[in-house]
Amino acid sequence: MDLSVLPTLTVLSDYVTIAQLGDNKIVRVVHPKASAAISLHGGHVISFKPEGQEDLIWMSKDAIFDNKAALRGGIPICWPWFGRIAAPAHGFARNSAWALLEHRESDNGVIVSLGLTDNEHTRAIWPHQFKLVLNVEISDALKVTLDVTNTDSTAWQFSGALHTYLNLGDIHQMTVTGMGATYVDSLLNNQACEGGDVLTLTDTIDRVYTAPENEIVLHDNAWNRKLSIQNSGDNSAVLWNPWKEGAESMGDMNNDGYLSMFCIESSLHANSLNEGKELAPGESHQLITHIAVR
């Protein structure tokens, strides 16, 4: 994504501006270490490009920037649930208006903080009080932290994911290691399965890996690089690619998009709302993904 062509609305500092992309307002970061972009609609990272590298984040060429639709690609925030265990699918955070709380910068990079709290709209969907802070740390690597706090008077349960779409040269020349051997296969009626140490793709995949290693590595052989993904605060890693038929079935995904993307998600997975992670009043939890080239 060429961030330089986006019209500037507001200059916040030497490194941070507010830009326009379609109807969406974008926090644009251009720093000597890296460039990045975050949509205020959805609190959604849509680009991270270390200096001298291809973008690590994939966005669909047909993504809809109408300030209403969830964005196809980037790092959608699935919260307060992941999947279709309630409506809307993947929760409401990825369709909500987030506020820019602050930005901090140094020679090492930029930190952008966004916030979302409960309001009349969210309480109509999910009747609880909460505070979310999304910290996006942009330097040689990208670190995204979703900080979840229960501001209610009673406990509640949640699940979620940082649904990262990674950008790669060619899905046919990609392998993945570190995802672990055990997984639940969504394409086989959530059957428990066991796989090997190295993953290659020839068809669609939708799996919840239940015992990932501390580091998952995407070997992007077409571009001769390795992407390191280190997640924390999760209980699983979701790996997904819709393949040709899946891409063609989605109106906001270009038909050949599956060839250049792969999702490795930091996930707090649960089979129902009641089985999610419980937070007592005043408690917080952090869901983190750290992505780097190595």
Automatic annotation (TrEMBL):
The keyword Secreted does not apply. Keywords: Isomerase. It holds the Pfam family Aldose_epim. One of its GO terms (molecular function) is carbohydrate binding. CDD domains: D-hex-6-P-epi_like (cd09020). It comes from the Bacteria. The active site is at H163, E265. It catalyses: alpha-D-glucose 6-phosphate = beta-D-glucose 6-phosphate. Its EC number is 5.1.3.15. Coiled coil: none annotated. One of its GO terms (biological process) is carbohydrate metabolic process. Belongs to the glucose-6-phosphate 1-epimerase family. This is Putative glucose-6-phosphate 1-epimerase. The lineage of its organism: Bacteria, Pseudomonadati, Pseudomonadota, Gammaproteobacteria, Vibrionales.
